[in-house]
Amino acid sequence: MKVQDIVDKLGLKVCSGSTGLNREIEGGYTSDLLSDVMGNADENQVWVTLQTHKNIMAIASLKELAAIILVKGYEPEADAAEQSNLEGIPILSSEEEAFELTGKLFDILKK
User: Fold this and answer.
1) Which CATH number goes with the domain that contains 99?
2) Cβ pair 89, 20 in contact under 8 A
3) Strand pairing of 13-16 and 27-30?
4) Mind listing the UniProt keywords for this protein, alphabetically (predicted)?
5) Residue 24's beta-bridge partner residues?
6) Total structural domains within the chain
7) What's the pTM value of the predicted model, to 2 decimals?
8) 43, burial (CB in 10 Å: exposed 0-12, middle 13-18, buried 19+)
């Protein structure tokens, strides 16, 4: 499944990094603790968080994540969006809370 597929199925807003919408997704990880994501997320996963600062892009790049989804309608800070555009790692936004969004994402990815 590609990032664009979950954008369409979950009605996500593409905030930045749209050149990466064709990235393949192999799973997901939900956490707001950067060290947790750095230690446990896997390559090509989608990361669900409420963090909006530039450090999320450092983690996403290091772990080779497919995309970041911000919950509760949050959008990336300007420097995070700029880095997302440079690296082609999409930052997406959802109005839903992490619990609901993660459940829907799990259902989509397990099929």
Assistant:
1) 3.40.1390.20
2) yes
3) unpaired
4) Kinase, Transferase
5) 2
6) 1
7) 0.96
8) exposed
